[in-house]
Amino acid sequence: MAKVVEGDDEAIAVVDAETGKKRTFSELCELVPRMSAGLAAAGVGLGDRVMYYSLNHTDYPLVYLSILHRGATIVHISPVYEALQG
């Protein structure tokens, strides 16, 4: 991501189709290490599994990348899947 930011620090990484909310690569480069540090403070370490229960949205890449940055594995649980199970 840092290479993308070098070329254009306002390059769009994610757009929410419903709300129009955008997140840039520059924002992700700034926020991922901060969120990763928060995960570390909460006790998340290398090889841990972190469950993330959420719909897809513009913060999903931030959460996903932060968990990977920490060296943990993301376990995504979608409420949509639960609804399909009935």
Automatic annotation (TrEMBL):
<feature type="domain" description="AMP-dependent synthetase/ligase">
    <location>
        <begin position="5"/>
        <end position="82"/>
    </location>
</feature>
<dbReference type="InterPro" id="IPR042099">
    <property type="entry name" value="ANL_N_sf"/>
</dbReference>
<protein>
    <recommendedName>
        <fullName>AMP-dependent synthetase/ligase domain-containing protein</fullName>
    </recommendedName>
</protein>
<dbReference type="InterPro" id="IPR000873">
    <property type="entry name" value="AMP-dep_synth/lig_dom"/>
</dbReference>
<dbReference type="Pfam" id="PF00501">
    <property type="entry name" value="AMP-binding"/>
</dbReference>
